[in-house]
Specification:
Helix content is about 5%, strand content about 40%. The chain is mostly beta strands.
Length: about 350
C-alpha cells in the first residue's frame, strides 16, 4: 500500500488526533502529502510538556511528554548562558542574569523576540499565556526584585509582534495569576490575595484566605492561584518532603466574587470538572481533558520535593493527583531538579 496516497481528509482526521507535538512533527515529516494535510497554522490542541530546569552552560532543552512518556531533547543555541523560565504557552522567557534584558523564545521554531527593557533585577517567577480579556493577545508577567517586589506585565500578539502595553505594579508576588484585566497575587505570609486593576494599576481589594489557611498555617503548605475554565482557583498542596507520594493531598477553593453588599470569598470544591491543572514550583495553568483522548479531568499534575538526604539541594519527582479519589502517583519523568510547564507550539 502506498501510504503517501492516503486521502487528505483521512490524513487530517489522523493528524487532528495527535495531541503530542512531537508526534505531529513526525507525521509532517513522512512526505509532502502528509505535511500538506497537517498545517502548522491549525494544529490540534496540545498537552503541556514538562521542561527540565535549564543549565546555564547548555544549549539544549529537555522536555518530558505526559502524553507519550518520552524525553525530548531540543537543540536551542540561543538558550546558552541564559536563565529560562515558564510556566508558559508557546514561548519561554529567557534572560541573562540581572541584565534586565528579557526575550520570548519559542524553543521549537527558535523564534526569539526581545522584550522592552524590564527593571526586574532578580526575576523570581514568570507566566506567559493568553489574555482572557482579549482573544488575540498574549501576556507575559514577570515578578522579581527581592527587596522591593515589582511585577511587570506586557501584552503582545501571539506571533511575538506588536508589543503593546507595558504595565508596572509596585508589589505582587511569585504566586499569582492574571484574569479578565485583574492581577491576583498571593501575600506569602498572611495568605491574603491582592487584586490589582490593570487599567488603573491600583489595588482594587484584598481577599481573606479560607478559615483553614493563615500565616504559617497549615505548616509547610504551598498555595497556588490558578485560572481554570473562567474560575479563580486557590489550590493548597499539603507539603512534606518526607511523606511518600501516595500521601500527598490537595484542597481546592474557588473564588466567589460576591456582590455590592458582600465581599469576595472562597468556596471549597471537590471537583474541577473536565479540567487538568499543571503546577510547577510556583504557578500553573489549566487545560480541558475533553480535548485529549485517553485523559480524564479532575487531575493535578505537580512537583513533589523528595528527601535525598541533602539539605543544600532539592530533588523533585513529577506526579499526578486524582482529586476524586484523593490519591497521588509518581510519573516516569526522570528529571530530578524540577522545572516548569510549556504548551508547545509551531506558531
Amino acid at each position: 500500500m502506498d501510504w503517501s496516497s492516503l486521502p487528505p481528509e483521512l490524513l487530517r482526521l489522523v493528524s487532528n488526533k495527535l495531541s503530542d507535538l512531537a508526534h505531529f512533527i513526525r507525521f509532517r515529516a513522512v512526505c509532502h502529502n502528509w505535511r500538506s494535510a497537517a498545517q502548522t497554522s491549525d494544529p490540534p490542541p496540545q498537552l503541556p510538556w514538562f521542561l527540565e530546569t535549564h543549565e546555564f552552560d547548555a544549549a539544549e532543552l529537555r522536555f518530558y511528554s505526559v502524553f507519550s512518556g518520552e524525553v525530548l531533547t531540543v537543540h536551542v543555541p540561543s538558550s546558552y548562558g541564559k536563565w529560562v523560565s515558564g510556566s508558559s504557552h508557546d514561548y519561554l522567557v529567557t534572560s541573562r542574569w540581572r541584565s534586565g534584558v528579557f526575550s520570548l523564545l519559542n524553543p521549537l521554531t527558535k523564534r526569539e523576540v526581545q522584550l522592552p527593557f524590564l527593571d526586574v533585577k532578580r526575576p523570581a517567577a514568570v507566566w506567559v499565556g493568553p489574555d482572557s480579556a482579549k482573544t488575540d493577545d498574549y501576556l507575559v508577567v514577570i515578578h522579581g526584585n527581592k527587596v522591593k517586589p515589582k511585577t511587570q506585565i506586557i501584552s503582545f500578539n501571539r506571533n511575538g509582534n506588536n508589543m503593546k502595553n507595558q504595565i508596572t505594579i509596585e508589589g505582587g508576588s511569585c504566586r499569582s495569576c492574571f484574569y479578565n484585566g485583574m492581577y491576583f497575587s498571593l501575600r506569602l505570609i498572611s495568605k491574603e490575595i491582592e487584586v490589582f486593576d490593570i487599567s488603573t494599576q491600583t489595588l482594587r481589594y484584598v481577599i481573606s484566605p479560607p478559615e483553614t489557611e493563615g500565616p504559617f498555617f497549615p505548616p509547610g503548605a504551598s498555595t497556588y492561584i490558578v485560572v481554570s475554565a473562567g474560575e479563580i482557583l486557590r489550590v493548597l498542596q499539603h507539603y512534606d518532603k518526607y511523606l511518600p507520594v501516595e500521601k500527598c493531598k490537595f484542597d481546592i477553593h474557588k473564588l466567589d466574587f460576591g456582590s455590592e453588599s458582600k465581599k469576595p470569598f472562597w468556596v471549597k470544591i471537590d471537583s474541577i470538572g473536565d479540567q487538568m491543572l499543571f503546577l510547577d514550583a510556583l504557578n500553573g495553568f489549566s487545560v480541558s481533558a475533553s480535548c485529549f483522548d485517553g485523559f480524564r479531568g479532575n487531575y493535578i499534575y505537580f512537583l513533589k520535593e523528595i528527601d535525598q538526604g541533602n539539605e543544600y539541594f532539592s530533588s523533585y519527582t513529577l506526579c499526578k493527583y486524582d482529586i476524586t479519589d484523593r490519591k497521588a502517583e509518581e510519573l516516569s519523568c526522570p528529571f530530578v531538579e524540577g522545572g516548569t510547564w510549556l504548551v508547545p507550539s509551531l506558531c
